[in-house]
Automatic annotation (TrEMBL):
InterPro entries: AmpC-like, Beta-lactam-related, Beta-lactam/transpept-like, TAT_signal. The chain crosses the membrane at residues 515-536, 569-593, 605-631, 643-662. Keywords: Membrane, Transmembrane, Transmembrane helix. PANTHER family: BETA-LACTAMASE-RELATED DOMAIN-CONTAINING PROTEIN, D-ALANYL-D-ALANINE-CARBOXYPEPTIDASE/ENDOPEPTIDASE AMPH. This is Beta-lactamase family protein. The keyword Lyase does not apply. The lineage of its organism: Archaea, Methanobacteriati, Methanobacteriota, Stenosarchaea group, Halobacteria. Residues 60-379 form the Beta-lactamase-related domain. Residues 22-36 have a biased composition (Low complexity).
Amino acid sequence: MTRSPTRRRFLAGVAATAATTGAAGVAAGSPATDPAADPPDADRRAVLQDDGGTDIESLLDDLVESSLEGQTASGATVAVVADGEVALTKGYGVADRESETPVDPAATPFRVGSVSKPVVATALMARIQQGDIDPQAPVSTYLDASLDDAVGSVTLADLVTHRAGFEMSNEGLWITDPDDLRPLPEALRTWSHARVRPPGEAPAYSNYGYAVAGSVLGTVVDAPFHEAIAADLFDPLGMTDSSFRQPLPDSLAEAHATGYGPADTYTDGEFPYVGIPPAGALSTTADDMARFVQLHLNDGVVGGEQVLAPETVAACQRQWATAHERLPGMAFGFVESEHGDVRTLRHNGGTPAFYSDLLLVPERGLGLFVAYNGADGGSAAREVLEGFRSELLPDPGSNAGDDGTLSPDGQPTRTDDLGGTYRSLRHSRSWHDRVTTTLQADTVEVSVADDGALVTTGGSVTRRWVEIEPLVFERVDGSERLAFDTGTDGEAIEYLHRGANPTTAYGRVGGVDRLSLHAALTVLSILGLLSAVFGWPTAAAIGWFRSGDDTDSGLAADPRRWRDRPAALARAVAAGAAVAVLVFPVAALVHLAAAPFAVLSTPSLTFAALFALPVLGLAGTVAALGFAARAWTDGYWGRFGRVHYALVAASLAVACWLLWYWNLLVPPL
């Protein structure tokens, strides 16, 4: 199914020349405006970079079909809104490779992941505008008392702008067995994510935070969350093929696009479920998302009906939080960004088998939704968004100098305090996925060059920045800004904020949190443990071979006589502990490879049973440390043997500390 007026048609009445005029309407950081004071539609439509000579369908055809080449995804679905009207909904490719069913924008649902979040936020804003919810009141006011400790004084505004202070964890996120799904209030209690910093101190993307926000909606409506959002938003808006219900209704499951993950294929709606649904459980069609986009670009009017009040839409789109007034921030459910002088609102979403992206340009009445049925759809969606923006929005230009670059003017403010390693706060602290989330978290090395430029290095990318005001920097090509911020003490530099990602700050990394330290300790510990596991048996075998009998040769001693031969017992205990500590990570990795969602989100009993190994390793370590002390007082072995045993005991202690740090010492509870 295709709905596709040309760009010439939907740009009718708009000037035919490119423009670089400033953004009109709701500017970043401005309060919600009075709709009655909004300029007429003709004035509100800022000039687009288009002469009306190219068909919008041709543009999307070129972009989407090209983006699908070489992808895991077999199909895509697209919706475009312009001047507040639906300009295009279209499907590309096939929803399922085996049946070769084409993607139908009106009838083929896609999983949209975190694009669910602005949908949830919009429903919440409607209730806020009705006076049913106070966004600045503690959300514990609306929730079960059992969640008081988890949420504390966190407000709905904190949750929706990712400033509640929760860690980013996979706990309870992905559920493979529908029998393991729980009602949202119970899921929040069972899979409670830790609060690791005070609310409002720094942004850190949180799926759990949005689940708590969705629970507020369910409580206020007095219905399960998926029913509450359907009654409050989907039904009035006419989104008849959209649902947060899990498992999906049969009609949607049967029509749903097949999801293609890195190694698995998910058909008939049987993809991994989201244990905390408001964070990303929405399945929807391009036609339904076109209505949602139209709602936000047409002052709440869809199909000639006033679905939401203009004030509600304006309140959703105004800025609710930012790390610094010179940086983009968060609207209510949307992420701000800038395309030159044009303010855009965006949210993307990824699941194990789908990817989606949503872009709104409120000041231009322009919006795009695109979704792919492949986990690697992110690169494809970026191609489409970039082509869409470059074709239809003015050239962002640059604030750089005549030579195209900004130049530093002396050393920046607090030069000596800026350098160091900064890591994205988007990682776990208390769950056993701490190691996987930390290794995946972006890390930036910061230094100051001799000429005063700030230098950041992330991976293989190095960029230079120039200070434009104290602790605020702009890239030398003028394309992005970043800012530094202090922590709770108000003195030391603790956070780095990038304008390209206002949902998550970067925290300064030092001391025992440095990965380089952990890598060095891991290598040294493994070498020490291997010297016990292989060195002592080898020495015992050599000693036995040379002696020709069972004389005292360490582990060759008769186990029944260990009480009389504590030196042999000491080595047996340390070697056994070393084996337990070394085998555990290998076994855990095997489990992770076989069932990644279960291991990271809802560990099975077999995975929990593996933790008997580090527990035994810990007990052996304590005993080995005691034996290490006795070895010197009781004269076990020679000097070299005693030193070696002490090093093995130390290696065990270091290994147990590493397992403790990464939440891998005791079973996940």
